Amino acid sequence: MADKKRARVTVDIYGQTYTVVGTEPSAHVRYVASLVDEKMREINKHNRHLDSKRIAVLTAVNSVHEFLKLQDRVKELEQEVKNMKG
Question: How far apart, in whole angstroms, are the C-alpha atoms of residue 82 and residue 86?
């Protein structure tokens, strides 16, 4: 298997510029960055007194929570499929 080429992508998240290095397509990296930016701005909208560090931590906590809920749902669906097969 050939190694994927690593690329640098510059993105803006919550008013800060970051350079992300990875193997994902630049459009994907930009999309992920836009979702993080959107979530941070949403949290800021409801918590104007928080600094950017706290907003970033709350964004991470909320994102991991959503990820774990989706992971549990995938497991449930996999079990349903397994039960249907036999």
Answer: 7
